[in-house]
Amino acid sequence: MSKKSEEERIAEFEVDSSGTLTMADYWEPKIRSEFYESVYESWAESPAHLADAMDECEPLAWAVHSIYTEVRDEIQAALDEIRETSGAFKKRTAALKARLKAMPEEPEDGVEDWLLSLTTNEFEDRIVPEVEEWFSSPPNWNWEDDHLPRDGTAQGAALEFFQNLGSDALDTLGVTIVEGEHPGSTYYAAELTCDVDAANKAAANAVIPVRFKNRKG
User: Which residues are 178's β-sheet partners?
Assistant: First the structure.
């Protein structure tokens, strides 16, 4: 094998000041549509498509539940406002009561039926913009961490790489796997416990196709 081919096979990792490893030159998704690509493709086609996407992506379901609660609160507020007018607008009151009755207080109990009852205009004017905004935003890692692909970040990709490398190679390189620093911690990473030069020398001597470099900045 040529020297160039060998170099192309070497995986390079950056090391920060605390030893945390990230895969070098790794493209990271930034917004939810990039993380949840499989459900993003067709959710906006209809309420039924959105309901199916919610079944596949729990964080999306949480977002739609929030919209459901907002709509229900708006209906309740409108009903309360009419009641303050001493019973005027009876038809409007009856219509609002009917809508409220059709929407159980707990989103899990009513969100799908509510979605499927929406007109095309209601869906496109109210639901689509809010869900699109959600997809266009970065994920909340505190809440969505368990639903995001581990290799969706450079740190996660490094962790996955070293988890698959084998304990002997990890010992040779001076790499440890950290899966939560304490109960409830969301910190999962591969860490280099020795000097970069020493790790690179050990990798070369053991013919392990890995190299390390200090992260700039």
Answer: 189
